[in-house]
Design brief:
heterodimer; A: alpha/beta; Rossmann fold; 5-stranded parallel beta sheet; 4-stranded parallel beta sheet; B: 18 strands; about 20% strand; allantoinase activity (chain B); Metal_Hydrolase (chain B); metal ion binding (chain B); pyrimidine biosynthesis (chain B); DHOase (chain B)
């Protein structure tokens, strides 16, 4: 509930969107609103009794058309901790191809009167397509190479918790920018929040025009790291990469692996992040990933549950009849 | 073939090869034009009063993917070249013969023979036999032939038979599985994208091979500034190179895909705004010879999908004429040149005696109200599917009557 001192417009004007399909289209104050909302859930999740029943009686469907362990678990916990009935639907890609179309699936889900649907799909734009066909809020848990907004929000919350404000922060995102929805959502989110975003990858993995999203492109990781406050590594999808986009994992590590020696170029207190799961010894060395004082990788997972609770809470306020949100 | 009584279209403004349309009539006998200009109908003629509207040659739609008569007739189109990308492909004389008959009597289909068996880009198809069966040209289909040796032999063989080879200009290695043009929009949407240079690379190679082979080559859709520069340079050197385009590429840029609109998923993909302007300049300066619809109706089962999973293509037959008329209204080209792009040049490439209103030509005539306003509505199209990126757009220009071989066809009456 917005207090009198709230910096946000009252009621639903603070977040006037039906769902969360992407960071694109969100104003910076709307992003900040979600981050602030998540703080209460960070606190709750640290208590022995992690339960709030505000979503009691509501049904949330997690429809995952692409394999996922962590994101699915995170959304499931988020829904359950808010008291909702959570159902998971995991659909292998192959059976989708044989069977009904995505639109039919969307219609089916809609007919089951879910109060929110969380979707992950392997094709860019698929979540928007479903969101246009259903009556309830839709949350994007990753669509193809397009967006993964809750990942960007949880990363922003992790950074804010460690560093305070975003203005003046130099944040490096390094890895497969071409195929990464995490990179796209993070660039949009961090640029909107006022950070300096540097992206770094071999030229074969830099998509054309990415600087227009609000970042500076580097191919030399050492230069990108110079004075950085945050270093965010992306997962290298090795099965897709080798020989096509990079010569070999060891060559990749040679140029783009985050090692202790390399990390010295960043600020002394630079935060190390990775969305997981990590390829230890390739994009990130174990002794970096496990640095107790610098690595925020475990913190990211913690923030993930809180962010998803905040999103589910905010997006179901209308159906719950919360004052100011009808 | 049945031939009706003689026909005279009177009170028209006749579109010629150049200049403004002139008042007059067109008289036809036995399916051919016998007089144009200041002629009067004879006693037994069927008389059609054009009431001062434009009388133009029936549009010859050079490279359609589907035969969809109601849509073609709506659009003032009386003939179409049919791309070999059918199921099964037009790579066998019997299939070509069947396709060549499939529109008669009121619509003529000119099959384009597959350059390679199964359009796989490996083995040459039977060009001469397919020609005898009614094929009017050779086409590589939707794809580029990756093997330069194979492509050279296709061109040499076609040159021997004096057939034009219609090429798809997208370098396969660069295009890969791309569904968009590399740039800010594709990157924001996270779509697999290819650089626009994929087109120029393909054109550069194919022009070189065609020159070696002494073959005539036509690029179906040239959509980038770089590709158009190469076509322009080849023409300047006197090579028999021609280029076509579809209205989408001079009307739209990749911005049209911004909401993952699959109706704007085309092949080649929509380009940048700079390339769109380059296409307009190339139409104005004569680098582009043909405007065709690329008609490819696709129903919701193929279009209501995530962008990269949707089939490419648009239903374009109905909007070909009005969108080309935009170029006339904006004074990029004049009316005579519009019908060179829409009819005369495509007929010439197909080697058919049509596409012009001249004595001896086949009596394919479209009576056109060039300024009539209407609104494109994807739900109410004549095409077998309504996949148009121009949905809800107001346009101007409608065919009010179409004659094929001197016989009125069942055109949907405007108004």
């Amino acid at each position: 509930m917005a207090s009198p001192a709230s910096p946000y417009p009252a009621g639903s004007a603070a977040f006037p969107h039906r769902g969360l399909v992407g960071i694109a289209g969100l104003a910076s104050h709307e992003i900040r609103f979600l981050l602030d909302e998540a703080e209460q859930w960070v606190r709750l999740n640290r208590l022995p009794q992690k339960r709030d029943d505000r979503l009691s009686g509501l049904t949330i469907i997690n429809a995952f058309f692409e394999n996922s362990t962590r994101t699915l678990l995170s959304f499931e916990l988020a829904g359950k901790r808010l008291g909702a009935d959570v159902v998971n639907m995991q659909v292998a890609q192959s059976s989708m191809k044989k069977g009904e179309t995505l639109i039919d699936t969307a219609t089916t889900l809609n007919a089951m009167h879910a109060d929110a649907i969380v979707i992950r799909h392997h094709s860019s734009g698929a979540v928007q397509l479903i969101a246009d066909k259903v009556d309830c809020p839709v949350l994007n848990a990753g669509d193809g190479q397009h967006e993964h907004p809750t990942q960007a929000l949880l990363d922003a919350l992790t950074i804010r918790t460690a560093k305070g404000e975003f203005n003046g922060l130099a944040i490096v995102i390094c890895g497969d920018l071409m195929h990464s929805r995490v990179a796209r959502s993070n660039i949009l989110c961090l640029a909107a929040l006022g950070a300096e975003v540097r992206v770094c990858a071999p030229p074969s993995l830099v998509p054309s025009g990415i600087e227009a999203m609000g970042c500076t492109v580097f191919t030399d990781f050492d230069k990108a790291l110079d004075g950085a406050d945050v270093v965010m590594m992306l997962r290298l999808q090795m099965e897709r990469m080798t020989g096509q986009f990079i010569p070999s994992p060891r060559e990749y590590r040679h140029l783009y692996g985050l090692t202790q020696e390399r990390l010295v170029r960043a600020r002394e207190d630079a935060l190390v992040m990775h969305p997981g799961p990590m390829n230890r010894g390739i994009e990130i060395d174990s002794n970096v990933a496990d640095m107790a004082d610098r690595s925020a990788i475990i913190r990211q997972v913690e923030m993930g549950v809180a962010i998803r609770m905040a999103c589910l809470d905010v997006l179901t306020r209308k159906v719950r009849g919360t004052e100011g949100w009808q | 073939m049945s031939v009706g009584p003689p026909l005279t279209v009177v009170n028209g403004r006749i579109v010629g090869r150049s200049g403004e349309p002139v008042a007059g009539a067109v008289r036809c006998e036995d399916g051919r034009i016998v007089a144009v200009g200041d002629v009067a109908p004879q006693p037994d003629d069927v008389v059609y009063d054009a009431k001062g509207l434009i009388v133009a040659p029936g549009i010859v739609d050079l490279a359609a993917f589907a035969i969809d008569k109601p849509a073609f007739h709506f659009g003032g189109i009386s003939r179409a070249g049919l791309m070999p990308d059918q199921s099964p492909p037009l790579d066998h004389p019997a299939r070509v013969r069947f396709a060549a008959q499939s529109g008669k009597p009121d619509f003529w289909v000119h099959p384009l023979a597959a350059a390679t068996r199964g359009l796989e880009g490996i083995e040459l198809a039977e060009f001469a036999l397919m020609c005898d069966a009614g094929a009017r040209a050779i086409a590589t289909g939707r794809q580029w032939i990756a093997d330069s040796g194979t492509m050279l032999r296709v061109l040499q063989y076609a040159a021997m038979l004096d057939l034009v080879v219609f090429c798809h200009a997208e370098d396969g290695g660069l295009a890969g599985n791309a569904v968009a043009t590399a740039g800010e929009i594709a990157t924001r949407l996270g779509l697999p994208a290819a650089p626009p240079e994929a087109e120029a690379l393909a054109i550069a190679r194919d022009v070189a091979l065609a020159e070696m082979a002494g073959a005539r080559i036509h690029f179906n859709k040239v959509t980038t500034a770089g590709g158009l520069d190469l076509v322009r340079a080849a023409k300047d050197r006197g090579l028999p190179v021609t280029a076509g385009v579809s209205p989408a590429y001079f009307m739209l840029s990749d911005l049209a895909t911004a909401d993952f609109r699959t109706f704007a998923r085309l092949q080649p993909p929509l380009r940048s705004e700079d390339d769109r302007k380059a296409v307009r300049r190339a139409i104005a300066d004569g680098t582009i010879d043909v405007i065709s619809s690329g008609h490819d109706p696709r129903g919701p089962e193929e279009k209501r999908l995530p962008f990269a999973d949707a089939a490419p293509g648009m239903a374009g037959a109905e909007t070909l004429l009005p969108l080309t008329m935009n170029l006339v209204r904006e004074e990029v080209i004049d009316l005579a040149r519009a019908f060179s792009l829409l009819a005369a040049k495509p007929a010439e490439l197909l080697g058919v005696e049509a596409g012009v209103l001249e004595v001896g030509a086949e009596a394919d005539i479209a009576v056109i109200d060039r300024d009539r306003p209407w609104i494109v509505d994807s739900r109410e199209m004549e095409a077998s599917a309504g996949n148009t990126p121009f949905d809800r757009q107001p346009v101007q220009g409608r065919a009010v009557a179409v004659f094929k071989g001197g016989m009125r066809v069942g055109v949907k009456q405007a108004g």
